[in-house]
Protein backbone atom coordinates (compact mmCIF):
# COMPACT_ATOMS: atom_id res chain seq x y z
CA UNK A 1 0.00 0.00 0.00
CA UNK A 2 1.19 3.54 -0.69
CA UNK A 3 2.66 5.39 2.25
CA UNK A 4 0.07 8.15 1.74
CA UNK A 5 -2.96 5.97 2.46
CA UNK A 6 -1.16 3.90 5.11
CA UNK A 7 -0.13 6.96 7.12
CA UNK A 8 -3.62 8.43 6.97
CA UNK A 9 -5.07 5.33 8.67
CA UNK A 10 -2.32 3.90 10.87
CA UNK A 11 -1.16 5.67 14.04
CA UNK A 12 -4.37 7.74 14.17
CA UNK A 13 -6.73 8.31 17.12
CA UNK A 14 -9.18 5.97 15.37
CA UNK A 15 -6.72 3.05 15.30
CA UNK A 16 -5.64 3.84 18.87
CA UNK A 17 -9.28 3.70 20.02
CA UNK A 18 -9.73 0.40 18.18
CA UNK A 19 -6.59 -1.04 19.76
CA UNK A 20 -7.66 0.11 23.24
CA UNK A 21 -11.07 -1.51 22.73
CA UNK A 22 -9.44 -4.78 21.62
CA UNK A 23 -7.14 -4.78 24.67
CA UNK A 24 -10.05 -4.22 27.04
CA UNK A 25 -12.18 -6.99 25.50
CA UNK A 26 -11.70 -10.18 27.51
CA UNK A 27 -12.07 -13.77 26.28
CA UNK A 28 -15.79 -14.53 26.03
CA UNK A 29 -16.73 -10.83 25.76
CA UNK A 30 -18.03 -9.14 22.60
CA UNK A 31 -17.34 -5.48 21.82
CA UNK A 32 -19.57 -3.94 19.15
CA UNK A 33 -18.41 -1.60 16.40
CA UNK A 34 -20.51 0.16 13.79
CA UNK A 35 -19.67 2.33 10.81
CA UNK A 36 -16.98 0.12 9.27
CA UNK A 37 -17.62 -0.24 5.56
CA UNK A 38 -15.97 -0.94 2.23
CA UNK A 39 -12.29 -1.77 2.14
CA UNK A 40 -11.86 -0.02 5.48
CA UNK A 41 -12.52 -3.42 7.13
CA UNK A 42 -9.31 -4.91 5.76
CA UNK A 43 -7.29 -1.74 6.26
CA UNK A 44 -8.32 -1.42 9.91
CA UNK A 45 -7.62 -5.09 10.63
CA UNK A 46 -4.13 -4.63 9.20
CA UNK A 47 -3.56 -1.51 11.30
CA UNK A 48 -4.89 -3.32 14.41
CA UNK A 49 -2.48 -6.22 13.95
CA UNK A 50 0.40 -3.81 13.42
CA UNK A 51 -0.53 -1.99 16.63
CA UNK A 52 -1.13 -5.02 18.89
CA UNK A 53 1.18 -7.61 17.29
CA UNK A 54 -1.50 -10.22 18.03
CA UNK A 55 -3.00 -12.70 15.60
CA UNK A 56 -6.14 -11.21 14.04
CA UNK A 57 -8.84 -13.54 12.69
CA UNK A 58 -11.47 -11.98 10.41
CA UNK A 59 -14.72 -13.95 9.99
CA UNK A 60 -17.27 -12.92 7.35
CA UNK A 61 -20.65 -14.41 6.43
CA UNK A 62 -19.92 -15.26 2.78
CA UNK A 63 -17.01 -16.64 0.80
CA UNK A 64 -16.89 -13.75 -1.68
CA UNK A 65 -16.68 -11.25 1.16
CA UNK A 66 -13.75 -13.19 2.62
CA UNK A 67 -11.94 -13.12 -0.72
CA UNK A 68 -12.37 -9.35 -0.98
CA UNK A 69 -11.24 -8.64 2.58
CA UNK A 70 -8.23 -10.94 2.14
CA UNK A 71 -7.23 -8.93 -0.93
CA UNK A 72 -7.54 -5.66 0.99
CA UNK A 73 -5.61 -7.00 3.99
CA UNK A 74 -2.83 -8.25 1.71
CA UNK A 75 -2.71 -4.87 0.00
CA UNK A 76 -2.28 -3.13 3.36
CA UNK A 77 -0.03 -5.60 5.18
CA UNK A 78 1.83 -7.45 2.41
CA UNK A 79 1.62 -11.20 1.78
CA UNK A 80 3.89 -12.38 4.61
CA UNK A 81 1.81 -14.03 7.33
CA UNK A 82 -1.55 -13.26 5.68
CA UNK A 83 -3.67 -16.34 4.99
CA UNK A 84 -7.12 -17.18 3.67
CA UNK A 85 -9.08 -20.30 4.69
CA UNK A 86 -12.17 -21.19 2.65
CA UNK A 87 -12.89 -24.85 3.37
CA UNK A 88 -14.81 -27.30 1.25
CA UNK A 89 -18.20 -26.41 -0.19
CA UNK A 90 -20.72 -28.63 -1.89
CA UNK A 91 -21.55 -28.54 -5.63
CA UNK A 92 -18.24 -27.12 -6.81
CA UNK A 93 -15.93 -28.02 -9.69
CA UNK A 94 -13.17 -30.45 -8.78
CA UNK A 95 -10.28 -28.33 -10.06
CA UNK A 96 -11.24 -25.13 -8.27
CA UNK A 97 -11.93 -27.19 -5.18
CA UNK A 98 -8.54 -28.89 -5.35
CA UNK A 99 -6.74 -25.57 -5.78
CA UNK A 100 -8.56 -24.17 -2.77
CA UNK A 101 -7.79 -27.24 -0.66
CA UNK A 102 -4.12 -26.81 -1.44
CA UNK A 103 -4.20 -23.28 -0.05
CA UNK A 104 -6.20 -24.45 2.97
CA UNK A 105 -3.71 -27.22 3.75
CA UNK A 106 -0.89 -24.69 3.57
CA UNK A 107 -2.83 -22.39 5.88
CA UNK A 108 -3.31 -25.13 8.47
CA UNK A 109 0.39 -25.97 8.37
CA UNK A 110 1.32 -22.31 8.86
CA UNK A 111 -1.16 -21.95 11.71
CA UNK A 112 0.34 -24.91 13.57
CA UNK A 113 3.78 -23.35 13.07
CA UNK A 114 2.60 -19.98 14.43
CA UNK A 115 3.38 -18.19 11.16
CA UNK A 116 0.02 -16.46 10.53
CA UNK A 117 -0.47 -12.81 11.49
CA UNK A 118 -3.91 -12.26 9.95
CA UNK A 119 -6.31 -15.06 9.00
CA UNK A 120 -9.42 -14.39 6.89
CA UNK A 121 -12.23 -16.93 6.64
CA UNK A 122 -16.00 -17.14 6.25
CA UNK A 123 -18.76 -18.77 8.27
CA UNK A 124 -18.82 -22.07 6.37
CA UNK A 125 -15.03 -22.36 6.52
CA UNK A 126 -15.08 -21.87 10.27
CA UNK A 127 -17.67 -24.65 10.63
CA UNK A 128 -15.59 -27.28 8.77
CA UNK A 129 -14.53 -30.39 10.68
CA UNK A 130 -10.73 -30.58 10.64
CA UNK A 131 -8.02 -32.96 11.88
CA UNK A 132 -6.54 -32.23 15.27
CA UNK A 133 -3.65 -29.75 15.06
CA UNK A 134 -1.36 -32.35 16.66
CA UNK A 135 -2.08 -34.71 13.74
CA UNK A 136 -1.24 -32.00 11.21
CA UNK A 137 2.16 -31.66 12.84
CA UNK A 138 2.66 -35.42 13.11
CA UNK A 139 1.42 -36.62 9.71
CA UNK A 140 4.17 -35.29 7.50
CA UNK A 141 7.08 -36.89 5.64
CA UNK A 142 10.39 -35.06 5.36
CA UNK A 143 12.52 -36.02 2.35
CA UNK A 144 16.18 -35.00 2.18
CA UNK A 145 18.71 -35.23 -0.62
CA UNK A 146 21.25 -37.96 0.13
CA UNK A 147 19.01 -39.66 2.69
CA UNK A 148 17.72 -43.20 2.55
CA UNK A 149 13.95 -42.89 2.17
CA UNK A 150 12.84 -46.12 0.53
CA UNK A 151 11.34 -45.87 -2.96
CA UNK A 152 8.41 -48.17 -2.20
CA UNK A 153 7.87 -46.60 1.22
CA UNK A 154 7.54 -43.17 -0.37
CA UNK A 155 4.97 -44.46 -2.87
CA UNK A 156 3.01 -46.10 -0.07
CA UNK A 157 2.99 -42.84 1.89
CA UNK A 158 1.76 -40.89 -1.14
CA UNK A 159 -1.19 -43.24 -1.58
CA UNK A 160 -1.89 -43.09 2.15
CA UNK A 161 -1.87 -39.28 1.93
CA UNK A 162 -4.59 -39.36 -0.80
CA UNK A 163 -2.28 -38.57 -3.75
CA UNK A 164 -3.51 -39.89 -7.10
CA UNK A 165 -1.29 -41.34 -9.82
CA UNK A 166 -1.16 -39.49 -13.15
CA UNK A 167 0.90 -39.67 -16.33
CA UNK A 168 2.20 -36.12 -15.76
CA UNK A 169 1.66 -34.14 -12.57
CA UNK A 170 -0.34 -31.01 -13.27
CA UNK A 171 -2.38 -30.43 -10.12
CA UNK A 172 -1.78 -30.64 -6.37
CA UNK A 173 -2.43 -34.16 -5.07
CA UNK A 174 -0.95 -35.99 -8.08
CA UNK A 175 2.20 -38.10 -8.48
CA UNK A 176 3.85 -39.73 -11.50
CA UNK A 177 6.51 -42.42 -11.96
CA UNK A 178 9.31 -42.49 -14.51
CA UNK A 179 11.77 -45.25 -13.73
CA UNK A 180 13.48 -44.34 -10.48
CA UNK A 181 12.01 -40.84 -10.49
CA UNK A 182 8.90 -39.77 -8.57
CA UNK A 183 7.23 -36.50 -9.54
CA UNK A 184 4.81 -35.28 -6.88
CA UNK A 185 2.72 -32.11 -6.62
CA UNK A 186 2.34 -31.53 -2.86
CA UNK A 187 -0.72 -30.06 -1.18
CA UNK A 188 1.59 -27.38 0.26
CA UNK A 189 3.78 -25.22 -1.96
CA UNK A 190 3.64 -23.56 -5.35
CA UNK A 191 5.57 -26.10 -7.44
CA UNK A 192 5.81 -29.89 -7.84
CA UNK A 193 8.86 -31.87 -6.72
CA UNK A 194 11.07 -34.28 -8.66
CA UNK A 195 12.56 -36.99 -6.42
CA UNK A 196 15.30 -38.99 -8.14
CA UNK A 197 16.29 -42.26 -6.47
CA UNK A 198 19.37 -44.41 -6.74
CA UNK A 199 18.12 -47.60 -5.15
CA UNK A 200 16.44 -46.44 -1.96
CA UNK A 201 18.58 -43.31 -1.59
CA UNK A 202 17.37 -39.91 -2.77
CA UNK A 203 20.04 -38.82 -5.22
CA UNK A 204 18.49 -35.41 -5.97
CA UNK A 205 15.46 -33.39 -4.93
CA UNK A 206 14.29 -30.51 -7.11
CA UNK A 207 11.37 -28.19 -7.67
CA UNK A 208 10.21 -28.00 -11.27
CA UNK A 209 7.87 -25.82 -13.28
CA UNK A 210 4.53 -27.48 -14.01
CA UNK A 211 4.20 -25.62 -17.34
CA UNK A 212 7.58 -26.36 -18.91
CA UNK A 213 8.50 -29.38 -16.75
CA UNK A 214 11.99 -27.85 -16.38
CA UNK A 215 13.83 -27.76 -13.07
CA UNK A 216 13.60 -24.56 -11.01
CA UNK A 217 16.04 -25.23 -8.19
CA UNK A 218 17.65 -27.98 -6.17
CA UNK A 219 16.39 -28.57 -2.63
CA UNK A 220 18.13 -29.94 0.43
CA UNK A 221 14.83 -31.13 1.90
CA UNK A 222 11.06 -30.98 1.39
CA UNK A 223 8.00 -31.81 3.50
CA UNK A 224 5.00 -33.71 2.11
CA UNK A 225 1.75 -33.63 4.06
CA UNK A 226 -1.54 -35.52 3.56
CA UNK A 227 -4.71 -34.03 2.11
CA UNK A 228 -5.98 -32.53 5.35
CA UNK A 229 -9.12 -31.34 3.56
CA UNK A 230 -10.10 -34.76 2.20
CA UNK A 231 -13.82 -35.50 2.35
CA UNK A 232 -15.11 -37.17 5.48
CA UNK A 233 -18.35 -38.97 6.25
CA UNK A 234 -18.19 -37.80 9.84
CA UNK A 235 -16.85 -41.11 11.17
CA UNK A 236 -13.20 -40.02 11.20
CA UNK A 237 -12.13 -40.09 14.85
CA UNK A 238 -9.19 -37.77 14.14
CA UNK A 239 -11.64 -34.99 13.31
CA UNK A 240 -14.46 -35.11 15.81
CA UNK A 241 -15.57 -31.55 16.54
CA UNK A 242 -12.23 -29.90 15.76
CA UNK A 243 -12.62 -26.59 13.94
CA UNK A 244 -10.36 -23.88 12.58
CA UNK A 245 -10.60 -22.12 15.94
CA UNK A 246 -8.45 -24.82 17.58
CA UNK A 247 -5.60 -23.82 15.26
CA UNK A 248 -5.52 -20.19 16.43
CA UNK A 249 -2.92 -18.59 18.66
CA UNK A 250 -3.90 -18.38 22.33
CA UNK A 251 -3.89 -14.56 22.21
CA UNK A 252 -5.81 -14.28 18.94
CA UNK A 253 -8.46 -11.58 18.53
CA UNK A 254 -11.56 -12.41 16.49
CA UNK A 255 -13.13 -9.78 14.25
CA UNK A 256 -16.62 -10.95 13.28
CA UNK A 257 -18.32 -9.07 10.46
CA UNK A 258 -22.13 -9.21 10.80
CA UNK A 259 -22.18 -12.02 13.43
CA UNK A 260 -25.97 -12.50 13.09
CA UNK A 261 -25.50 -13.30 9.39
CA UNK A 262 -22.70 -15.73 10.31
CA UNK A 263 -25.02 -17.44 12.82
CA UNK A 264 -27.66 -17.77 10.09
CA UNK A 265 -25.14 -19.56 7.85
CA UNK A 266 -24.28 -21.96 10.67
CA UNK A 267 -27.97 -22.68 11.28
CA UNK A 268 -28.51 -23.51 7.57
CA UNK A 269 -25.46 -25.77 7.54
CA UNK A 270 -26.79 -27.66 10.57
CA UNK A 271 -30.20 -28.09 8.93
CA UNK A 272 -28.59 -29.40 5.73
CA UNK A 273 -27.30 -32.45 7.61
CA UNK A 274 -23.78 -32.18 6.18
CA UNK A 275 -21.45 -34.50 8.15
CA UNK A 276 -18.34 -32.39 7.47
CA UNK A 277 -19.44 -29.41 9.60
CA UNK A 278 -19.88 -28.95 13.35
CA UNK A 279 -22.98 -27.72 15.15
CA UNK A 280 -23.72 -24.02 15.84
CA UNK A 281 -23.46 -24.81 19.56
CA UNK A 282 -19.94 -26.15 19.09
CA UNK A 283 -18.95 -23.05 17.11
CA UNK A 284 -20.23 -20.73 19.82
CA UNK A 285 -18.42 -22.81 22.45
CA UNK A 286 -15.01 -22.41 20.80
CA UNK A 287 -15.56 -18.76 19.81
CA UNK A 288 -16.26 -17.89 23.44
CA UNK A 289 -12.64 -18.73 24.29
CA UNK A 290 -11.46 -15.56 22.55
CA UNK A 291 -12.17 -11.82 22.70
CA UNK A 292 -14.48 -10.77 19.85
CA UNK A 293 -14.96 -7.50 18.02
CA UNK A 294 -18.35 -7.52 16.26
CA UNK A 295 -18.65 -5.28 13.20
CA UNK A 296 -22.35 -4.57 12.69
CA UNK A 297 -24.13 -2.44 10.13
CA UNK A 298 -26.91 -1.91 12.66
CA UNK A 299 -26.59 -2.63 16.35
CA UNK A 300 -29.61 -3.38 18.54
CA UNK A 301 -27.67 -3.06 21.80
CA UNK A 302 -24.83 -0.93 23.15
CA UNK A 303 -22.15 0.25 20.68
CA UNK A 304 -18.61 0.46 22.02
CA UNK A 305 -17.11 2.28 19.03
CA UNK A 306 -18.76 4.01 16.08
CA UNK A 307 -16.16 4.42 13.33
CA UNK A 308 -18.60 6.51 11.31
CA UNK A 309 -17.47 5.48 7.83
CA UNK A 310 -19.87 5.54 4.88
CA UNK A 311 -19.96 3.84 1.51
CA UNK A 312 -18.51 5.51 -1.55
CA UNK A 313 -21.46 7.35 -3.13
CA UNK A 314 -22.97 6.02 -6.34
CA UNK A 315 -21.86 8.19 -9.26
CA UNK A 316 -23.43 6.22 -12.12
CA UNK A 317 -20.31 6.58 -14.25
CA UNK A 318 -20.63 10.39 -14.31
CA UNK A 319 -17.28 12.16 -14.18
CA UNK A 320 -19.14 15.46 -13.72
CA UNK A 321 -20.81 14.11 -10.57
CA UNK A 322 -17.42 12.84 -9.37
CA UNK A 323 -15.80 16.27 -9.86
CA UNK A 324 -18.59 18.00 -7.93
CA UNK A 325 -18.26 15.37 -5.18
CA UNK A 326 -14.51 16.00 -4.98
CA UNK A 327 -15.06 19.77 -4.82
CA UNK A 328 -17.56 19.39 -1.97
CA UNK A 329 -15.20 17.09 -0.04
CA UNK A 330 -12.25 19.41 -0.46
CA UNK A 331 -14.36 22.37 0.68
CA UNK A 332 -15.09 20.39 3.86
CA UNK A 333 -11.39 19.77 4.51
CA UNK A 334 -11.21 16.20 3.20
CA UNK A 335 -8.18 14.65 1.58
CA UNK A 336 -9.39 12.96 -1.62
CA UNK A 337 -7.80 9.80 -3.04
CA UNK A 338 -8.75 7.94 -6.21
CA UNK A 339 -7.59 4.33 -6.43
CA UNK A 340 -7.01 2.55 -9.74
CA UNK A 341 -5.97 -0.99 -10.56
CA UNK A 342 -3.67 -0.20 -13.51
CA UNK A 343 -1.57 2.73 -14.71
CA UNK A 344 -3.64 3.17 -17.94
CA UNK A 345 -6.84 3.37 -15.85
CA UNK A 346 -5.19 5.99 -13.66
CA UNK A 347 -4.10 8.14 -16.59
CA UNK A 348 -7.49 7.83 -18.27
CA UNK A 349 -9.29 8.90 -15.08
CA UNK A 350 -6.87 11.78 -14.55
CA UNK A 351 -7.54 13.01 -18.11
CA UNK A 352 -11.33 12.70 -17.76
CA UNK A 353 -11.28 14.62 -14.48
CA UNK A 354 -9.10 17.32 -16.01
CA UNK A 355 -11.55 17.84 -18.87
CA UNK A 356 -14.54 17.90 -16.49
CA UNK A 357 -12.84 20.43 -14.18
CA UNK A 358 -12.03 22.73 -17.09
CA UNK A 359 -15.74 22.81 -18.01
CA UNK A 360 -16.76 24.12 -14.56
CA UNK A 361 -16.84 27.67 -13.32
CA UNK A 362 -13.59 28.48 -11.57
CA UNK A 363 -15.39 28.96 -8.26
CA UNK A 364 -16.84 25.43 -8.43
CA UNK A 365 -13.64 23.61 -9.36
CA UNK A 366 -11.82 21.24 -7.02
CA UNK A 367 -8.08 21.67 -6.67
CA UNK A 368 -6.81 19.10 -9.14
CA UNK A 369 -3.32 19.15 -7.62
CA UNK A 370 -4.80 18.03 -4.29
CA UNK A 371 -6.48 14.95 -5.80
CA UNK A 372 -4.22 11.96 -5.19
CA UNK A 373 -4.25 9.12 -7.72
CA UNK A 374 -3.06 5.77 -6.34
CA UNK A 375 -2.36 2.37 -7.87
CA UNK A 376 -4.22 0.58 -5.08
CA UNK A 377 -6.72 -2.08 -6.29
CA UNK A 378 -9.00 -1.90 -3.23
CA UNK A 379 -12.43 -3.46 -3.59
CA UNK A 380 -14.62 -0.68 -2.20
CA UNK A 381 -14.15 3.02 -1.55
CA UNK A 382 -15.28 4.70 1.66
CA UNK A 383 -15.80 8.08 3.28
CA UNK A 384 -14.25 8.42 6.76
CA UNK A 385 -15.31 11.72 8.40
CA UNK A 386 -13.25 11.25 11.59
CA UNK A 387 -10.04 11.33 9.54
CA UNK A 388 -11.40 13.68 6.84
CA UNK A 389 -10.54 11.01 4.30
CA UNK A 390 -12.46 10.18 1.12
CA UNK A 391 -11.27 7.16 -0.89
CA UNK A 392 -12.88 6.35 -4.24
CA UNK A 393 -12.36 3.13 -6.22
CA UNK A 394 -12.20 3.72 -9.98
CA UNK A 395 -14.13 0.57 -10.88
CA UNK A 396 -17.00 1.63 -8.59
CA UNK A 397 -17.16 5.08 -10.17
CA UNK A 398 -17.91 3.46 -13.52
CA UNK A 399 -20.09 0.64 -12.19
CA UNK A 400 -17.66 -2.20 -12.83
CA UNK A 401 -17.20 -5.21 -10.56
CA UNK A 402 -13.69 -5.93 -9.37
CA UNK A 403 -12.87 -9.61 -9.14
CA UNK A 404 -10.64 -11.23 -6.53
CA UNK A 405 -7.00 -11.85 -7.24
CA UNK A 406 -6.42 -14.95 -9.36
CA UNK A 407 -3.30 -16.82 -10.32
CA UNK A 408 -3.36 -18.26 -13.79
CA UNK A 409 -0.98 -20.98 -14.78
CA UNK A 410 -0.44 -22.41 -18.25
CA UNK A 411 -0.47 -26.18 -18.03
CA UNK A 412 1.99 -28.25 -20.07
CA UNK A 413 0.45 -31.49 -21.32
CA UNK A 414 3.69 -33.07 -22.54
CA UNK A 415 4.65 -34.21 -26.04
CA UNK A 416 1.87 -36.08 -27.83
CA UNK A 417 2.20 -39.53 -29.37
CA UNK A 418 1.74 -37.98 -32.83
CA UNK A 419 4.57 -35.51 -32.21
CA UNK A 420 6.81 -38.31 -30.92
CA UNK A 421 6.39 -40.33 -34.14
CA UNK A 422 7.32 -37.28 -36.22
CA UNK A 423 10.77 -37.13 -34.58
CA UNK A 424 13.72 -38.49 -36.53
CA UNK A 425 17.07 -39.62 -35.11
CA UNK A 426 19.36 -36.63 -34.89
CA UNK A 427 16.56 -34.09 -34.46
CA UNK A 428 17.26 -31.47 -31.85
CA UNK A 429 15.07 -31.71 -28.74
CA UNK A 430 15.05 -30.03 -25.33
CA UNK A 431 15.30 -32.28 -22.30
CA UNK A 432 13.32 -30.94 -19.34
CA UNK A 433 16.31 -31.21 -16.99
CA UNK A 434 19.45 -31.26 -19.13
CA UNK A 435 18.60 -28.86 -21.96
CA UNK A 436 19.34 -29.27 -25.69
CA UNK A 437 20.23 -32.67 -27.08
CA UNK A 438 19.73 -34.96 -30.09
CA UNK A 439 16.90 -37.50 -30.34
CA UNK A 440 18.41 -41.03 -30.46
CA UNK A 441 15.22 -43.02 -30.96
CA UNK A 442 12.97 -45.04 -28.68
CA UNK A 443 14.43 -47.62 -26.32
CA UNK A 444 12.85 -50.30 -24.15
CA UNK A 445 14.22 -50.43 -20.62
CA UNK A 446 13.37 -52.42 -17.50
CA UNK A 447 12.85 -50.67 -14.18
CA UNK A 448 12.34 -53.17 -11.39
CA UNK A 449 9.78 -55.59 -12.88
CA UNK A 450 8.33 -53.16 -15.40
CA UNK A 451 9.30 -52.80 -19.07
CA UNK A 452 8.73 -49.35 -20.53
CA UNK A 453 9.45 -47.50 -23.74
CA UNK A 454 11.38 -44.26 -23.34
CA UNK A 455 12.93 -41.65 -25.60
CA UNK A 456 16.74 -41.63 -25.69
CA UNK A 457 18.37 -38.19 -25.92
CA UNK A 458 22.10 -37.66 -26.47
CA UNK A 459 23.41 -34.74 -24.40
CA UNK A 460 26.79 -33.15 -25.06
CA UNK A 461 29.33 -33.69 -22.26
Strands of the widest sheet, in order across it, are 3-4-2-13-14-1-15
Number of helices: 14
How helix-rich are the residues, as a percent range? 25-40%
What is the approximate shape?
globular
Q: Mean pLDDT, nearest integer?
A: 86
Which CATH top level class of the largest domain fits? Alpha Beta
Low-confidence blocks of residues: 91-101, 407-413
The count of DSSP E runs of length 2 or more, i.e. the number of strands, is 23
User: Which fold name corresponds to the CATH topology of the largest domain?
Assistant: Rossmann fold
List the SSEs and their pairings.
Elements lengths: L2 H7 L3 H12 L5 E5 L5 H13 L3 E5 L2 H15 L4 E4 L8 H20 L4 E5 H5 L5 H6 L2 E4 L6 H10 L3 E2 L8 E5 L2 E5 L7 E6 L2 E8 L6 E4 L2 E4 L28 E5 L1 H14 L7 H8 L4 E5 L8 E2 L3 E2 L7 H13 L3 E5 L3 H16 L13 E3 L7 E3 L4 E5 H4 L19 H6 L5 E4 L3 E13 L2 E9 L3
Parallel strand pairs: 1-14, 1-15, 2-4, 2-13, 3-4, 6-7, 13-14, 17-18, 17-20
Antiparallel strand pairs: 5-12, 7-8, 8-9, 9-10, 10-11, 16-19, 19-20, 21-22, 22-23
Provide structural commentary.
- The chain has 461 residues and is an alpha/beta fold.
- It has 4 domains: 3-131 and 237-306, P-loop containing nucleotide triphosphate hydrolases (Rossmann fold); 141-224, Penicillin-binding protein 1b domain (Penicillin-binding protein 1b fold); 310-397, Rossmann fold; 420-458, no CATH class.
- 32% of the residues lie in helices and 25% in strands.
- The strands form 5 sheets. It has a 7-stranded parallel β-sheet, sandwiched between helices.
- α2 packs across α3, α3 crosses α4 and α11 (319-331) packs across α12 (343-358).
- It is globular.
Amino acid sequence: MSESLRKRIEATPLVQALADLARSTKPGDVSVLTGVTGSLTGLLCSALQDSLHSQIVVILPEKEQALHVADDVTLAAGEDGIRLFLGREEHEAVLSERSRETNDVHTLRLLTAGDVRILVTHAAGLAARLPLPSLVQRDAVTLAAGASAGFDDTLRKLRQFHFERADIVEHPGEYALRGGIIDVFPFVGENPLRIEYFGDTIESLREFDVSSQRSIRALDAAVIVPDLMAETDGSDDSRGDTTLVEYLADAAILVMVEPLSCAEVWRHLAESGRPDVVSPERIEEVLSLFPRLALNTLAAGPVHLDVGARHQPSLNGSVQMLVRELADRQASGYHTLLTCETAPERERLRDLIGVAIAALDESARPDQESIEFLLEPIHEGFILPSLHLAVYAEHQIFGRVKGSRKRRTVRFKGITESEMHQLRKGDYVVHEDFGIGRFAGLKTIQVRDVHMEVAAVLISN
